[in-house]
Design goal:
Blueprint: H1 10-21, H2 27-46, H3 57-70, H4 75-94, H5 113-116, H6 123-136, H7 141-152, H8 156-160, E1 167-168, E2 173-176, E3 194-197, H9 200-213, H10 236-246, H11 282-295, H12 300-307, H13 311-318, H14 323-331
Antiparallel strand pairs: 1-2, 2-3
Helix pairs in contact: 1-2, 2-4, 6-7, 7-9, 7-11
Protein name: Tyrosine-type recombinase/integrase
Organism: Halovivax cerinus
Pfam families: Phage_int_SAM_1, Phage_integrase
């Protein structure tokens, strides 16, 4: 180590990095990088790394091994984690917290086509989840949110950014609007603005949610959020927790696929529901919804427009139909002999 470095703990360095990039990156990107770096900071604290000056190439290797072998993260996830860490270390070097060039020691793993085909919510499990909510949490926040996520394939950021006024119960649609000035954005900005049709059954849930259970709060920008807690607009983090909470198999009566004792399972408390290996974040719900639409023979251009995803990205990251399913669906369009 050189004497030019100035002591800085990992947690403070993380916050400095996020503050520095807040005006360069989209809110969703900042949130994603913040989560990845939170995992890194927690690892540093577990390993007793209290000063970034002491962070070395060997530590990079140890962190990579931990994420790959102990946490069993997918290659694509590892690539994102290490890309964020590399940018973070580059920033840390610029403020004399780590040796210059340390970021260059991070080599990103190569991803393949198979890496893009990640986990998704199966339609049968989606039905179990929604049936459970229909019976035990009808028209509650969790029911309304997860019904929308499954039936529309919306990103969680788009869903929590909806206002009551964006829901048209007469014509049965949701209006997706990019509102960066008041704290809610769409991933593709103005290009992501669109009208998304909803079904009779989903409208019934939303109508009852608004009439009976909606807390009637306004958010800090004075807007009327469609999805709200008793205090404010539903946050993305709370939306993710709801997804984790109700995609655990034990919640809707299935036996634990991991042979865990419910009385001792660490993932039983809502605060730890993400610890269940079977629980899913909102994105696999979106992936499952898109695949289900395709399985039901919804034309790709319609899915692309409805879900705000380009055809190329749809093919690479979301379409999880098997080759046999695709062939059988194409066969129906062949002319008769």
């Amino acid at each position: 180590m050189t004497s030019d470095l100035e002591p800085l703990d990992p947690r403070t360095a993380r916050q400095m990095y996020l503050d520095a990039r807040a005006h360069e990156l989209a809110d969703a990107t900042i949130q994603s990088q913040g989560y990845r770096l939170k995992q890194f900071v927690e690892w540093c604290e577990e390993e007793g790394i209290e000063n970034m000056n002491n962070f070395s190439g060997r530590d990079i290797h140890q962190f990579r091994i931990k994420r790959r072998e102990e946490d069993d993260v997918a290659t694509a996830t590892m690539k994102g984690q290490l890309a964020t860490l590399r940018a973070f270390l580059r920033f840390a070097a610029s403020i004399d917290a780590v040796e210059s060039g340390l970021d260059e020691q991070i080599i990103l793993p190569k991803t393949t086509e198979d890496d893009a085909r990640e986990v998704m919510l199966d339609p049968d499990l989606a039905k179990k989840m929604l049936d459970h909510l229909e019976q035990y949490r009808y028209a509650a926040l969790e029911h309304a949110l997860l019904a929308i996520l499954w039936h529309t394939g919306l990103r969680i950021g788009a869903a929590v950014g909806l206002d009551i006024e964006d829901y048209n119960p007469d014509d049965q649609y949701l209006a997706l609007v990019h509102r960066p000035d008041s704290g809610s954005t769409l991933k593709n900005g103005k290009d992501g603005e669109r009208l998304v049709a909803v079904t009779d059954s989903v409208c019934a849930i939303l109508d009852d949610w608004l009439e009976v259970n909606h807390p009637g709060v306004t958010d800090q920008a004075g807007r009327n959020p469609l999805f709200a807690t008793r205090r404010d607009r539903l946050s993305r983090n709370r939306g993710r927790t709801i997804a984790y909470q109700f995609t655990r198999p034990c919640v809707y009566g299935d036996p634990c696929p991991h042979d865990r004792d419910p009385d001792e399972c660490e993932a039983i408390p809502t605060s730890q529901c993400h610890a269940c290996p079977s629980s899913l974040s909102p994105h696999p719900i979106r992936r499952g919804s898109i695949t289900y639409h395709l399985q039901q023979e919804t034309p790709k251009p319609i899915v692309s427009d409805r879900m705000d995803v380009s055809p190329d990205v749809l093919d690479r990251h979301y379409d999880q139909r098997t080759s046999l399913e695709k062939m059988r669906q194409r066969r129906r369009y062949l002319p008769d002999d």
